[in-house]
């Protein structure tokens, strides 16, 4: 395995040997300077190398594999030439949207296959003929079993957010799929972390991969300003409303621990905050698609989500992340705040901590090897202090009335 550290690029996309059609598509979506992962991966991928790319969400990794895939497509055959596997429906949708933009000047057919959507629509698209299939492992396996997805023409495979796919138990499905792809083929593996299980998968299914190291041992982006707030459990909603009204975020993602908690919180805050929606695994797929479309366009500025769905939200415009419930696993905190501060933009992350949650806060700080500072709430703290004083005075008055 060849390891290469990735430096900040000093080049433009025009320096990467891309076609005029691709350069025009990139200009149209205002991609001028490649991110480090794009500058590193694109030339190697165009050369046909297998690649392991370590990069956090928000570094431009979809374009890093999407651009060379589109550039390398040949005349359409019986089945797709490229297969992209992703852990969630939401991420699969976002990949397709980005790939459609990149392929705007070409006759490229891209199809998404995932659960929660009527399979008939996917069947019709596959029957018409596609160049690139983007899907979740479970639904890809379903199509293989039905005989509706032919992998005999696949020469490029992408495993996006490979660590996440392994975390949620997709390894058996991934291996079944990879065994169906004929050799030789190119494999691109993108992951936020390179754990031993990732390396075992690479050793088994990749050929002399080039390893691109980005943000190694850095669990969070420096573009995210992080703060914690100590707050009583019954005051968290009030504090959230105060922060939303004070900050007026362009787009804010609020994480809760449970689906029921997400529903309750959204119902409470939408009484006083405009543009609040909720997304979690119990919502019908059509509802989730509608919510995500509105969130991407900015129609919905505040989205309350659970970890399972939130990990797949890949929207560049998120300015704030609020950890309404502290995550049980410190690594989930890293994934949560990775939704903001993307592509060099600045972001803000708030962590609500109840008085008895000092240990989870310490665990997060140890993982990140940094101290999270407390947030100065200024006038809000003074207001709360005066309210508490009045409540105390009221209690004393009531007590003295009985004496």
TrEMBL record:
Family as reported in the entry's similarity comment: Belongs to the DEAD box helicase family.
GO cellular component: cytosol
Domain Helicase C-terminal: 223-383
UniProt keyword annotations, A-Z: ATP-binding, Helicase, Hydrolase, Nucleotide-binding
Enzyme class: hydrolase
SMART domains the UniProt entry points to: DEXDc (SM00487), HELICc (SM00490)
Motif (Q motif): 11-39
Entry's EC annotation: 3.6.4.13
Official protein name in the record: DEAD-box ATP-dependent RNA helicase CshA
Gene3D superfamilies named in the record: P-loop containing nucleotide triphosphate hydrolases (3.40.50.300)
Domain DEAD-box RNA helicase Q per the UniProt entry, residue ranges: 11-39
InterPro entries: DEAD/DEAH_box_helicase_dom (IPR011545), DEAD/DEAH_RhlB (IPR044742), DEAD_box_RNA_helicase (IPR050079), Helicase_ATP-bd (IPR014001), Helicase_C-like (IPR001650), P-loop_NTPase (IPR027417), RNA-helicase_DEAD-box_CS (IPR000629), RNA_helicase_DEAD_Q_motif (IPR014014)
GO molecular function: ATP binding; hydrolase activity; nucleic acid binding; RNA helicase activity
Residues in Helicase ATP-binding domain copies: 42-212
Organism: Tautonia plasticadhaerens
